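Reply to dn_fold:

You asked what the input looked like. This is it:
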Amino acid sequence: MTDGRSPSRRGFLCAVGATALSGAIISRRGDDGIEADYRTVVDVVEEGADPSGEESVSPVVDSLLADDTLLRFPEGRYYMDEQVRHTGFETVGLVGDDGATFVPAPVTDYEGPTYRLFRLGVRDDPGRDLHVENFEIDQRAESTGIRAFEASVADGLVVRDVDVAGYHDSGTFGPGLFRITDSSGSGLVERFHAPSGAASSDTVSTDLWRGPTGILGNLNHGTLRFKDCVLGPYPDNGLYASEGTGTIVVDGGTFANSGAGSVRLGAGTCIVDGATVVVDDYAEHFPRQQGIRIDEADDAQIRNTTVEMTASTGRAISLHDVTSAWISNVGVTMGPKPAPAIIVGPETGSTDIVNSSVTIDADANALRLLGDDPGRVVVEGCRIDGDAIGETFRHAVRAERDRCEFRQVEIDQFNGTRRCALGLLGADYTVYDCTFRTTGPPLMVYGSDVWVESTYADALEAADAMYLDADADSIRVKDCEILDGIEDDGATNLLVTGT
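and this is what came back:
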């Protein structure tokens, strides 16, 4: 649902559809089988909770929470004006019937810093087996943006079908924080929707640096899956899960227009699979919005994902301090603002980028590979196109690190006069079965130990389709079609055969 206080979200509406933004609860599964998992099932209205939204239900709910107990919330509006905190529990559930809605009081009614509806478990006293399902959080009234659920659970976390309606304008914590504290534990956060985002510190008083984050998953040590969630635009990060040793999985979902990163991860293993990431609305408070950012992870995998960056000067995908990375079946679209599409940082190790595409219109690198020799990079079965002109950043792919392979890569960039396909600045490169068509020389070699085989290169504007710098050394070109020839500026040990 929108209101007069929320910023423009035109592009995001296109991405997620009006249904997600309406804040309306969709029809849920009519499954009462969950009750069999609990010794005690309590109807909170029968126990005195007011479903009319007139009186606070916080004291009643707090008194009813107990081990092996499921609290059922019939359809109604449940006003809450203080945090419900419960730690060290075993087997607790909160499940709403369709239309069950929590209505936060203005945050000025809460005793800071307890700006939460529920805090269920803490890191040093987590719960176990927590099930939360089927609630709307109505924060459409002024200054009612709040953290709806915070859960620290050793194992057995399920949070499903939570819809946050309204723009978070209070400057307090974002709507969710979830973590698994046990290395063998697991948890699922499914269909947590908070699409309207939050106000930044530029527009609202807050103790937070930039403003709220949508969902936090920090200090997670088990396996935590976020499935089909919808977030954005948040002034800090959309989904932010870092500083843990466990596994974070982002399974589907749409993440849009957040500040530092719409999806920002750092853990033992980080997986993004089937997600849609959109930055199509410029954030004045944070112009370098990034799509997917993964830092300090042992293993990073990005699969079957779309990243659309039509309004940002930030990167679509950045990998920093990652031991190994895999990017496959990923489509990236970069708009007119100059920004590299995919960055492999200097401390990131072995990386594979396969069966993926980048459309880039701005004057920037589609793919930039940094570092000296932290690990090999393989780029295979990929395509790069778009209207980049190459006036400032000439190369569609700029390889500054050693040991890179390019196999069956197609690059078509025909705008301007200086755009080049591939710049090789390090050592130990293989270019095999590639097709390059650009306005400038498609192949530019500044480094050494370069093998180019079975490759087609066509310069539409430049005199030659391959350029060799004076510092280039040990270049082998075999069975290639290099239209208009090779410009050799003094390279050493050049061997051309079958071309």
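Residues 34 and 70 are 9 Å apart (CA to CA).
Hope that clears it up.
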